[in-house]
Amino acid sequence: MHASKSLQPTSSGSRTIILVVFGLFITLLGAILFAGSVGPVSIPFSRTAAILLELIGYPLPVQVTEREWLVVSQVRLPRVLVGALVGMALGISGAAMQGVFRNPLVEPGYVGVSSGAAAGAVCALFFGWSQFGRWALPLSAFIGAVLAVLIILAVWRSSRSRSIATLLLLGIGINSLLSAMISIMVASSSSDQELRSIVFWLQGGLEARTWEHLQLIAAPILSGCLLMLIFGRHLNMMLLGDDQAATSGVNIRLVRYLLLALASLMTGAAVAVSGIIGFVGLVVPHIIRLLAGPDHRLLLPASALGGAIFLVLADVVSRMVLQPVTLQVGVVCACIGAPVFIAIIIRSRRGGHAQ
């Protein structure tokens, strides 16, 4: 009963949601400005801000060189914005799926999206499809993600047990199968260049991302985020159990299908241009939940913005920490996310024993 009351909308709760989301949005803008300024070619924040404002139609009387303009507008900004959208997709998808499964250890990759995208991309590299055009690789990754999810859902619907735990187990099984197929292709790689391309994609990265990549993922990710925000109240009700949610007017099966479809669409689009990036959809919703509570009306938008901030800053670390060597951003996310995740588990277990 207490949990039910704590998740009911109130005027003070609505103000809190607005303030937190606004604060995170301002933080994201600051992270984008910071990421656009730092790098091998350092550019003052004022000039980076002037370039960003001019790109959206608000020129400032600040002199910038042609080199600075090209570095920010053509090299860094597309990469930073792609990273922000990828982090946004992974963050909000992780929060939604943790609510659907009622399991805080779930992330988007658990239903086969990431493994399917990886299998599709590795097939494109292994069989040479990536030579047909610059979009062959992300398109193959997206198709692989969609096919993996469709297979899992088809098997789940045809099984005797249609519990949400069965769906999770099917996702784990498909992940193992696809990982084995990827390992076979890696072991059978015919050239060092092909092997290097496969390994780099599997590690996840934002190198050489362009405005065209941004255009490719902007519509599915932004529209998916907006649609997912509609289900905040439904997820709150589902946290109280299926019976309580059903008596409150929630069509549980429809909501689950829609949320899984939206999460798969956004994650597939994100992974198609960035490769496999783990821990964002797992750790960011955890941190937001610890700081702001379990209300999905706040958790969903905060996880989207938090995921964007996390990945933008992780990409800065990947570019700067070992100059002139550039790390893959997926490696940086794992190095940061894994210890945080372990700490969260230790903290939650201590809390459980304390109770």
From TrEMBL:
One of its GO terms (molecular function) is transmembrane transporter activity. The lineage of its organism: Bacteria, Bacillati, Bacillota, Bacilli, Bacillales. It is a multi-pass membrane protein. Gene3D superfamilies: ABC transporter involved in vitamin B12 uptake, BtuC (1.10.3470.10). Keywords: Cell membrane, Membrane, Transmembrane, Transmembrane helix, Transport. It comes from the Bacteria. InterPro entries: ABC_BtuC-like, ABC_transptr_permease_BtuC. Its main location: membrane. Belongs to the binding-protein-dependent transport system permease family. FecCD subfamily. GO terms for biological process: siderophore-iron import into cell. One of its GO terms (cellular component) is plasma membrane. This is Iron complex transport system permease protein.
